Amino acid sequence: MNLGEAAARQLVRDLLTSLPFDRVDAAVAPSFPCLRAVLDAVAGTPLAVGAQNAYWEDKGAFTGEVAPPVLFEMGVRYVILGHSERRALFGETDAVVSQKVVAARRHGLQTVICVGESEIERDAGRTSQVVVGQIRAATEASALRSSEGIVVAYEPVWAIGTGRTPQPVEVTRAHAAIREALSLRFGASAEAIRILYGGSVTTANAHDLLRAPEVGGALVGGASLTAGSFASIAAAAASC
């Protein structure tokens, strides 16, 4: 919940001149009120636009929610679902995330499914168990017939906004567990699913995190609010 229209528009204009689009895929996910301004600013460019959330119904008396087909009609192509803040602050369950994933895919939105463990779960050695359970729950619906359009973001809850990050070996272990769960659900096609790391990604740690096995990119939080730091992380991704 950052930046108004003018600031969001300026940020993406700066990103358009600083990101290495020939070597990375990049997308931004502004808050809902800024979507139109950002979509207009990036029209015809390689920078994609995502939404931070969506509801699972196409329309109806759901005041305050936003429907997937409306987002797609606007030109939005990605949606972040199951972010740890949505789970922790707004009570989203695995079942809710699953419904949202099915609805988003039904309307052509690429879904970034977020999974991750709390500090208590990490300390108990349950990281793999937790993320595998979340992946299974988010993708178990029979209406989700293929892995197409799915991206996963591993975001350890204890690392978000704290400045703390897991060691690359820990990230590799979690991503490997996620890959195995995806393979069990979707078969060989799961190899094409990109698994991102998110959780206090900065210019200082991006290179080490992004070069870890099974890490296919980053879900960037606070460091995405300035073009320089976001571009630096993108450059690190391009070099890995």
User: Would you identify the CATH architecture?
Assistant: Alpha-Beta Barrel
CATH class category: Alpha Beta
Classify the fold: give the CATH topology: TIM Barrel
Q: Mean pLDDT score, rounded?
A: 96
Shape: globular
Report the helical percentage: 40-55%
H/E element string?
A: HEHEHEHHEHHEHEHEH
Largest sheet strand order: 1-2-3-4-5-6-7
- Helix/strand/pairing category: alpha/beta
- Rg, please? 17 Å
Number of domains: 1
- Measured distance between first and last alpha carbons: 30 Å
CATH superfamily, called what?
Aldolase class I
Low-confidence regions:
none
How is the main sheet built?
Answer: 7 strands, parallel
What portion of residues belong to β-strands? 5-15%
Which secondary structure elements does this structure contain, and how are they paired or packed?
Layout: H1 5-16, E1 27-28, H2 35-42, E2 48-51, H3 68-74, E3 78-81, H4 84-90, H5 94-106, E4 110-115, H6 119-123, H7 127-139, E5 150-154, H8 168-186, E6 194-198, H9 206-210, E7 218-219, H10 227-239
Parallel strand pairs: 1-2, 2-3, 3-4, 4-5, 5-6, 6-7
Please provide a written account of the structure.
Helix 1 (5-16) packs parallel to helix 2 (35-42) and helix 1 runs parallel beside helix 10 (227-239). 41% of the residues are buried. The chain has helices at 5-16, 35-42, 68-74, 84-90, 94-106, 119-123, 127-139, 168-186, 206-210, 227-239, and strands at residues 27-28, 48-51, 78-81, 110-115, 150-154, 194-198, 218-219. The protein has a seven-stranded parallel sheet. It contains ten helices and seven strands. 42% of the residues lie in helices and 12% in strands. It is an alpha/beta fold. The protein has one domain: Aldolase class I (TIM Barrel). Strand 1, helix 2 (35-42) and strand 2 form a beta-alpha-beta unit.
